[in-house]
Amino acid sequence: MSDIVVNINGKEYQAKEGEYILNIARANGVFIPALCYLTNCSPTLACRLCLVEINGKRVYSCNAKAKDGMQVITQNEEIQKERNAIMKVYDINHPLECGVCDQSGECALQNYTLEMNVNSQEYSIKDVHRPTRDWGRVHYDPALCIVCERCVTVCRDMIGESALKNIPRGGDAIDADFKANMPKDVYAMWNKLQKSIIGIASGAEVLDCTLCGECTAVCPVGALVGSDFQYKSNAWELKKIPASNPHSSDCSLIYYDVKHTSTADAKEKIYRVSSDFNYAPIHAAARYGYDFDNTVTHKDTQAFAKVIEALQTKVDTIKFTSYITNEEALILQKLKEKFGYKLVNKDAFVFANFMKNFAQTSGTTLYNGDLVALRAANFVISLGAFLKNDSPNSGYAFNNALRMNKGAGIYFHPISDNVVNNYSKKLISITHQVGAEEAILYLLLDLFGKKLPLHVSDYLKTFHTTTTKTITENVKETIMEMVKKTIKDEESGEEKEVEVQESKVVTKNVEKQVEVDSNKLFELIGMPEDFMETLQKLLEKKDTFALVVGEDLYAHPRATNLAKLLGLVQKYTDFSVTLIPSKTNTLGVSLICDLDAEAGKFVLGYNEKADITLSALGGGDLDMPALNQQEGTFASLGKKVVPTNVAVSFGGYCLNDIANALGLEAEYTIDYTQELPTDKGFKAVRFDDLPNEFDNSGNENRGYLLDAKEVICDDMAEEIKALSLDDTQILYLANPVHQFSPFTNKAHQLNEAGSLFVSSEFLEAKELQSGDMVKIDSEDGSLVVSVKVDTTIGGNIVYLPTFDTKLNAEQFFSNGYRFAHVSIGRV
Q1: pLDDT class for 170, splitting at 50, 70, 90?
Q2: Taking the CB of residue 279, how many other CB atoms lie within 10 A of it?
């Protein structure tokens, strides 16, 4: 899009051609009211409040695309009159329960009623009974609903599920006198409002989606609200504490909404999590998994002394997870340098090795993509990620690109995902064999590579063979034939029959021999026969490409070559490449810590079971604060160093106290923020100087971007080596869509027992029912567990989660790879 100038209320603003006028106004601090529009979603024109005048013509700014030289007026007497009438219609029969409504104090209906100076009411109609509905984690009150359709729009255009829709309300017809005496657009809006409410698209009684809760976030009134939050607090009582999602590597901006527990208990309590929904969604775990704090009121001096003594006398290894801040990671690295401890972190170790091999061919220490690039693309590919579950926010961006950019794409994964499959009709979902990722990356280089290294292009040629194929074509041919016609003799006037020759077009089926390029990579991957034909159609008018890659690749038996191939994709194709780090701060830990492959003889575990354990989950030798009780930074999948803050207090010791007792010196953990290693891409910036907000344009002004370092590369990659597969059952290591770790499972709205998650097809094939007990066996271990249907997946691959530590799921994946061969039988 080219740069243009738009004049709004007499002032010129720079913009991009094709941008919506409403977005241009918002970005420049010009107020235009809108109840229905959401940034990055399609306009619905439901509320019609965003009426403006462009070049003398009245239009809706949410749907008006900018052109150079446009003259826009956002406010005049006629516009104000119409907006006033619209708000009067919205206020008809709206329940007067603001004192107890959960949205009161941050309600758009309240705000705009005041803004439009509504101080009288001349419209009226008989109301109809609209009973409330309990949809599981979401409560819907249709009496409060203004049918703005934000919930419908965000679910379709952002989340990708289309779980909600407009359904008939059964209201009375509007009196004809109103139609004659009110603005035309106001009447149309009222007529729609009177006829509709929101319902579940499938017709079910309870929401049958992934329950992300984004519909409650975008609701401008109190119609959709979290069932757990309902009637718990007024909005103005809550203190918003900006933080970063502690559960996954998107590290999205969230707000912990906090106040005292009760009139009798002054202790702070998190009542909910909110977000800047206009600019970025958050997933279910971020929204509902907030109360995982470790309640500790005092310092256990004896336990602390025991830990210090062990670190001074016995400990030779510190084993930890990536659910820590960058500052804590730096403390651990400093302790290693001072005392020689081994540092063991499995997921960060394999990610660090993957990135080192990636750098060898890409020439840079970091991948070049992020979720902004993914959302902006019009051709998207996902590889090696159980996208909806592993990184819901990546899935939202993937779907948003397909929906909003007239996009197309390919989803590669061994497990069929019904939600992802329904993102778009222009998405090809390839359910490939386990271990086919090498062939897929070579295919991407073959299809999209430019000026590839000679050894790569020569190797790709070995997969191409030319075969002769007989095809049948419809061929049009002109022939001459004799036909009888009746003519009239000019002299006698008598009619007579004569034969004349006429041309005729006929269609014949003609067999034809053609040479066809056959690609053996298709066979290795399991591509459909018509893949190339379909792909060529999807690629029409596509010019912005994005590839998102997940953790199936990082501990893959062929991870070294996969990383090198991915580096070649970044270097020699037009794809932006985004990697999804497997845990919240896997990227940060992989950059900061010098990690070891194996532990020593005596291990201290930080949120890991060990000889002596520091735990934010409780039950260890020394309690530690959870991530909602700490301030510090994470390195997100967007390669940004983003801050998080303390939501609730912790009365015990933290890692910095241990470090100080061992000879390091820092008053606060965040004193290490400005010491994060600049040679790894961090910057010497104080914690208190880090921004954490979106601006009006939707730009993410949070922390800072890591610096990618250039490295010498060699462009070398190995040939494909197929994994050996047998006929045993394949088990996958993954969590259901709302779980990420024992911390999410600790939250009261998400807590559940772990199960073996299977498809309906698997249940039927094994003649099982949900809840039946089965035994999983392999060379590495065995487990008796109940089965549970995941209705979003298909096929025969089943998955075992990590959020329930009682299952010890990792026992089946000793080499770190997410796929394992097991046997499963009924108990």
Answers
A1: confident
A2: 18
Amino acid identity at 685:
V
Q: Tell me the pLDDT band of 253, cut-offs 50, 70 and 90.
A: very high
Q: Which residue has the tokens 């047998």?
A: 726
Tens digit of each residue's pLDDT (9 = 90 or more) over 519-531: 899 988 988 888 9
Give every CB contact of residue 621 below 8 A, 6+ residues apart in sequence.
Answer: 303, 306, 307, 612, 613, 614, 615
Average pLDDT of every residue of the chain: 94
At 160, list the tokens: 């990708």
Six-digit token string for 791: 């209705």
**Pairing relation of β-strands 408-412 and 379-383?**
parallel
Helices (H) and strands (E) in the chain, counts: 24, 38
Mean pLDDT of 276-297: 96
Q: What is the mean pLDDT of residues 31-51?
A: 95
* DSSP3 helix / strand / coil % (the chain, rounded to 5): 30, 25, 45
Instruction: Order the strands of the 57-60 sheet from edge to edge.
Output: 11-16, 3-8, 71-73, 51-54, 57-60
What length does the chain have? Answer: 827
Q: Answer whether residue 23 shows pLDDT above 60.
A: yes
The fraction of the chain above a pLDDT of 90, given in percent, is 85
Nearest to 311 by CA among 286, 280, 342, 287: 342
Q: Indicate whether 516 pLDDT > 60.
A: no
Q: If we measure between CA atoms, which residue out of 525, 597, 96 comes closest to residue 346?
A: 597
Identify the DSSP state of 156.
I
Q: Is the pLDDT of residue 668 over 90?
A: yes
Strand segments, DSSP code E, in 682-800 are 692-694, 700-702, 704-705, 729-733, 756-758, 773-778, 781-789, 793-794, 798-800
Alpha helices by DSSP H, 593-675: 655-661
Name the more confident of 491 and 601. 601
CA dihedral over 218, 110, 20, 193, signed as positive or negative: positive
- Side-chain-side CA neighbours of residue 136 (13 Å): 15
Interval 305-338: pLDDT, tens: 999 999 999 999 999 999 999 999 999 999 999 9
| Pairing status of strand 138-140 against strand 416-417 | unpaired
Distance, first Cα to last Cα, the chain: 62
Q: At what angle do helices 77-91 and 184-195 cross, to 10 degrees?
A: 20
CB-based contact 265:256 (threshold 8 Å):
no
Give the β-pairing of 71-73 and 57-60. unpaired
**Could you give the CA distance from residue 650 to residue 105 in angstroms, rounded to a whole number?**
30
For residue 563 the two structure tokens come to 């990383």
Please choose, from the candidates 144, 130, 159, the residue with its C-alpha nearest in 3D space to the C-alpha of residue 225. Answer: 144
How far apart CA 255 and CA 276 sit, in angstroms, is 9
- Report the b/e string of 564-601 with b at 16+ CB within 10 A: bbbbbbbbbbebbbbbbbbbbbbbbbbbbbebbeebee
List, in order, residues 6 or more apart from 662 with CB less than 8 Å away: 308, 311, 312, 335, 338, 339
Closest Cα partner for 555 from 352, 395, 731?
352
Q: For residue 809, give the nearest of 795, 822, 793 by alpha carbon.
A: 822
Q: What is the pLDDT of residue 107?
A: 96
Contact present, 632 and 644 (Cβ < 8 Å): yes
Other CB atoms closer than 10 Å to residue 75's CB: what's the count?
14
For 483, which DSSP code? E
Rounded CA separation 582/637 (Å): 9
Q: Helix (H, G, I), strand (E, B), or coil: what is residue 355? A: helix
**Bridge partners, 343 (sequence order):** 318
> CB of 704 within 8 A of CB of 690?
yes
